[in-house]
Design brief:
The complex is a heterodimer of chains A (232) and B (518). By secondary structure, chain A is α/β, with parallel strands linked by helices. Chain A has 10 helices and 11 strands. In chain A, the strands form 2 sheets. In chain A, strands 3-2-1-4-5-6 form a 6-stranded parallel beta sheet, with helices on both faces. Chain A has a 5-stranded antiparallel beta sheet with strand order 9-8-10-7-11. In chain B, helix 1 packs across helix 5 and helix 20 crosses helix 21. In chain B, the strands form 2 sheets. In chain B, strands 3-2-1-4-5-6 form a 6-stranded parallel beta sheet, with helices on both faces. Chain B folds into 4 domains: 164 residues, no CATH class; 93 residues, Helix Hairpins; 124 residues, Rossmann fold, CATH 3.40.50; 91 residues, Alpha-Beta Plaits (2-Layer Sandwich), CATH 3.30.70. Classes of the chains: A alpha/beta (232), B alpha/beta (518). At the A-B interface, helix 1, helix 6, helix 7, strand 7 and strand 8 of A face helix 14, strand 4, helix 20, helix 21 and strand 7 of B.
C-alpha cells in the first residue's frame, strides 16, 4: 500500500495521519468543502484536498492508485460518515475502508455500509478504561507491546513450506524456552484463530499457510522467522 | 488545689487518644447511622421495648412470674439507665469547657473561674436533659421504681423510645414537622369548631329531657366524635337546633379530615425525592467498595455498564435528566455536582477505604479538570482517571491531579496504526482482551500464600494447566520481565501475566493459592 486517504478534517484524522505516516508514502487528508474549521499546525505537514459528498470520486481515481490505497472515514457527523463509506464502497469494491463510529448503533450501520473495519470509539475507550481499572498490569504491558516503540513486539509470521515444524503440534513445543518467543495463537487458512492450547490447535498439526501470532524481542522474532517462514 | 487537679484531668482527657477513641466508639455505636453495629444495637433496644410492653399487657389480667417482673423492672431499666448516662456523657465535652475557661482566664491574667466553667457545663447538660428525646429516655427508666404503682404506666414511654431506633418513624415525624404551620392552623380551626359547637349543642340540648347531652363534657365529647367523622351514635342531638349544629360540625369535620389527608400527602410528595436521596446516601455509606463515576454521558454509560458486572458503581452528575437516565439503566445515581466539595461531604463516604477510583468521564475537559481538582483538594491519594477530549488540555488535567488520562483520538490513531501494520496480530490481541471464545488475559498478584509454595518461576507448572505465562511484572522495579527465566525469583506484590482458558485460569489460580506439601 502506498496511499492513505483520510476523510475528515479533525483531531481523529490528524492522530491517524500522525501514527501511519511512516507506513505510507502519501498521507492525504480530505476536507469537506463546507468545513470551515482550521487546524493550522497540522495543515502544514499533510496534503489537504477538498471533497464533497456528492463527488463521483473521479479526482481520486485520477490522482491515486486506488488498488494501492487505504481509506479512513473519520467524519464526526455519523450520517455523513455512513454516506461517505457507502459512497466509496459503491465505487470501489475492493478498497480497504476503515471508519470510526461513536456508538454501537452507528458501528453496525457503518458495517452495513461496507466498511472493512469499524473502530467504535466510545466502546473502545470504555473497554480500555475498564481494563485499566480491572487489569492495570495487563493493560500497561499490552499497550507497551502494541503501541510503544520498544524491543518487545507482537508479530504475525506465516508458515512456509518445508519448515522444521511441519506436522508437529504447536502445544507440544516449548516455544518460550526453545525459541525465546511466546506463541499466542495460530490463524488458519480460513482465517479462524485459535489459542495454542485450544482443542482445535492441539489436534491441528502445523501446516504451511498457517499464521503464528508471537510475542518476543526483535532479534528472537527475526531468528524464529528464519526457521518458520516470513513475516506478514 | 482541686481546681488545678480538675484542669489537669481535663487536659489529660482532652489529649488522651484512648479516651477520644472510647468516646468516638460510643458515639458511633449510639448515634452514627452508618456504623454497622448500630443497627444491631437498635434492634436489641426495640426488642427490649416490645418485651416491656408485652409484660405490661400481660400483667393487666394475668399473673406474671417474678423473674419476668425482675427482668422488666430492673434489667431493662438498668440497660436504659446506662444508655441514658452514656448519651448524657456524649452530649458535650466537659473537659473542653474547663480547658476553654482556663485558657481564657490565663490569657486575661485572671484566676481560673471554676464556677463559670461549672455553669457552662450545667447549661450544656441541662439543655440535653430537657430535650424531648432525653425526657422520654428518663421516663422510660422510671418503672425501675416499681413500688410506685402509677409509675408502672411509664413503661408506655418506652414505646416513644422507638423514635430513636426506627428510621421510618424519624422520617415520618420529620416529614410531618415540615408542615408544622399548616397543621397548627388546622388544629386551631378544629379546636375553634369544637369549642363553638360544644357550647352551642350544650345550650340547645342540655335543658331538653329527651337529649342525652346533659353536661358540658358530654357536649365536648359529642363535638370531637362528630368532627373526627367517627360518630359513635351513643350521644345524638334531638332538637332541631341541635341537629343544625350537627350538620355544620359534620361539614367542618369532612373539611378537617380532607385537609389533614392532603397535608400529609403533600408533605410526603414534597419530601419524597429528599427522602429517597437520604436513603440512597445511607445505602451508599454502607457499600464496602465502589467506583465513583462523575458525569453520565457517552463513555461513562459504557464504562458503568462494563464495571457493574463485577463492582458497585455510583454515578454523580449535576444534570437531573442524565441522572434519571442512569437510574433507568439500573445504576445508583445522585443528582450531585461532582465539582463541589459539598457533594462528597453529603455522601458521607470514606474515600480512602470505600472508593476504588474516581472516574471523570464528563464530555467536557473543563468539568473534568474541575472535578479532579475538587477531589484532589479533599483527598491526595485516591486514584483519578479522566478522559481527555481535546489534546491541548492534557497538561491541565495532569496538573489537576489526574493519575491516568485517556485521549480517545490518540487511541484511535494508535489502533489505526496497529491495524494497518499487523491486522492479524491486532485481531488476536483484541480477541484476547475481549475474552473471545473463553480465552482471557489475566494478572495474578503474588501474595504470601503463593510465595509459601512457589518461590521461582520454574515451580509454577503453568503448562500443565494449558496456561501461557507472558512474563512477570516486578512491582518494585516497575519492569516487565517478558518470558521470565525459570530461575526468576517471585516476590510479594509481583504480577504473573497469563493467557489461557478462563476455566483453566481459575483452576491455576486455585492451585497457586493451595498450600503445596513439599
Amino acid at each position: 500500500m502506498k496511499n492513505a486517504l483520510i476523510f475528515g478534517y479533525n483531531d481523529y484524522a490528524f492522530e491517524i495521519a500522525k501514527n501511519i505516516s511512516s507506513t505510507y508514502e502519501n498521507v492525504c487528508i480530505f476536507k469537506l468543502h463546507d468545513d470551515k474549521s482550521s487546524l493550522a499546525k497540522e495543515q502544514e505537514k499533510y496534503k489537504i484536498y477538498g471533497f464533497d459528498l456528492s463527488d463521483d470520486w473521479d479526482e481520486i481515481v485520477n490522482d491515486f492508485d486506488v488498488s494501492e490505497s487505504i481509506v479512513f472515514c473519520t467524519l464526526e457527523d455519523i450520517a455523513k460518515n455512513v454516506f461517505l463509506t457507502i459512497s466509496l464502497r459503491d465505487t470501489f469494491k475492493d478498497l480497504i475502508i476503515i471508519s470510526i463510529a461513536q456508538g454501537k448503533e452507528s458501528a453496525s450501520k457503518l458495517e452495513l455500509a461496507g466498511a472493512s473495519r469499524v473502530i467504535p470509539t466510545t466502546e473502545t475507550t470504555a473497554k480500555i478504561i475498564v481494563d485499566m481499572l480491572e487489569k492495570p498490569v495487563v493493560t500497561k504491558v499490552l499497550h507497551s507491546i502494541l503501541y510503544e516503540q520498544n524491543d518487545l513486539q507482537i508479530a504475525q509470521i506465516k508458515v512456509n513450506k518445508n519448515n522444521i515444524f511441519d506436522d508437529k503440534y504447536p502445544a507440544d513445543i516449548n516455544w518460550s524456552r526453545e525459541y525465546k518467543i511466546i506463541l499466542l495463537s495460530v490463524v488458519y487458512e480460513d482465517m479462524s484463530q485459535e489459542f495454542i492450547y485450544s482443542n482445535k490447535a492441539k489436534h491441528h498439526p502445523i501446516q504451511s499457510g498457517d499464521i503464528f501470532v508471537v510475542v518476543g524481542y526483535d532479534k528472537d522474532i527475526i531468528n524464529f522467522e528464519q526457521l518458520l517462514g516470513s513475516r506478514v | 488545689m482541686l481546681k488545678f487537679l480538675l484542669v489537669d484531668i481535663a487536659y489529660f482527657l482532652n489529649t488522651s487518644n484512648k479516651y477520644a477513641k472510647i468516646k468516638l466508639f460510643f458515639y458511633d455505636f449510639l448515634e452514627n447511622n452508618s456504623n454497622k453495629y448500630k443497627r444491631y444495637f437498635d434492634f436489641f433496644m426495640i426488642t427490649l421495648i416490645l418485651i416491656s410492653v408485652v409484660i405490661l399487657i400481660r400483667e393487666v389480667k394475668f399473673h406474671v412470674s417474678d423473674e419476668l417482673l425482675f427482668f422488666n423492672n430492673f434489667v431493662i431499666s438498668i440497660i436504659f439507665l446506662i444508655e441514658y448516662i452514656l448519651r448524657l456523657w456524649l452530649s458535650g465535652s466537659v473537659s473542653t469547657i474547663i480547658i476553654k475557661q482556663n485558657e481564657h482566664d490565663t490569657m486575661l491574667g485572671n484566676k481560673f473561674k471554676f464556677s463559670k466553667a461549672l455553669k457552662d457545663i450545667l447549661i450544656l447538660k441541662i439543655k440535653y436533659v430537657l430535650s424531648i428525646k432525653a425526657i422520654i429516655d428518663l421516663l422510660a427508666i422510671l418503672p425501675f421504681f416499681h413500688q410506685l404503682r402509677l409509675l408502672r404506666l411509664f413503661i408506655l414511654f418506652r414505646v416513644f423510645k422507638l423514635f430513636r431506633y426506627t428510621k421510618s418513624i424519624q422520617t415520618f415525624s420529620s416529614v410531618i414537622s415540615s408542615k408544622k404551620f399548616e397543621f397548627l392552623t388546622l388544629m386551631i380551626f378544629a379546636s375553634l369548631v369544637v369549642f363553638i359547637s360544644s357550647i352551642l349543642i350544650y345550650a340547645m340540648e342540655a335543658n331538653n329531657p329527651a337529649s342525652s347531652i346533659n353536661t358540658l363534657f358530654e357536649a365536648i365529647y359529642w363535638s370531637i366524635v362528630t368532627i373526627s367523622t367517627v360518630g359513635y351514635g351513643d350521644i345524638t342531638p334531638v332538637s332541631e337546633a341541635g341537629r343544625i349544629v350537627a350538620i355544620f360540625v359534620i361539614i367542618a369535620g369532612i373539611a378537617v379530615f380532607s385537609f389533614t389527608t392532603s397535608l400529609v400527602v403533600t408533605a410526603f410528595t414534597e419530601k419524597l425525592d429528599e427522602i429517597k436521596d437520604l436513603k440512597l446516601v445511607n445505602d451508599i455509606s454502607k457499600i464496602k467498595e465502589f467506583y465513583l463515576i462523575c458525569g453520565y454521558e457517552s463513555v461513562a454509560k459504557d464504562v458503568a455498564l462494563k464495571l457493574s458486572s463485577n463492582f458497585k458503581v455510583i454515578i454523580l452528575d449535576e444534570d437531573a435528566s442524565r441522572i434519571e437516565l442512569a437510574k433507568k439503566d439500573g445504576f445508583i445515581a445522585l443528582n450531585y455536582d461532582p465539582g463541589s466539595v459539598q457533594s462528597y461531604l453529603k455522601l458521607k463516604i470514606d474515600i480512602d477505604t470505600q472508593v476504588k477510583a474516581i472516574l471523570c468521564l464528563s464530555n467536557s475537559d473543563v468539568e473534568n479538570v474541575y472535578t479532579a481538582l475538587t477531589v484532589r483538594s479533599i483527598n491526595k491519594d485516591i486514584f483519578i482517571l479522566s478522559i481527555l477530549l481535546d489534546g491541548a488540555n492534557k497538561n491541565k488535567l495532569k496538573f489537576a491531579g489526574v493519575n491516568e488520562l485517556l485521549y480517545e483520538k490518540e487511541l484511535v490513531g494508535m489502533i489505526a496504526k496497529e491495524y494497518v501494520g499487523q491486522s492479524v496480530a491486532f485481531e488476536v490481541i483484541h480477541a484476547l482482551r475481549s475474552n473471545y471464545n473463553g480465552i482471557d488475559m489475566q494478572e495474578i498478584v503474588i501474595n504470601d500464600r503463593i510465595l509459601s509454595s512457589f518461590s521461582l518461576v520454574r515451580d509454577l507448572n503453568n503448562r500443565k494447566y494449558n496456561i501461557v505465562l507472558l512474563g512477570v511484572y516486578k512491582k518494585d522495579k516497575k519492569v516487565f520481565l517478558f518470558n521470565s527465566k525459570d530461575e526468576t525469583v517471585l516476590e510479594k506484590g509481583d504480577f504473573l501475566l497469563i493467557v489461557g482458558d478462563e476455566k483453566f485460569i481459575k483452576e491455576f489460580d486455585k492451585y497457586l493459592h493451595k498450600r503445596q506439601i513439599k
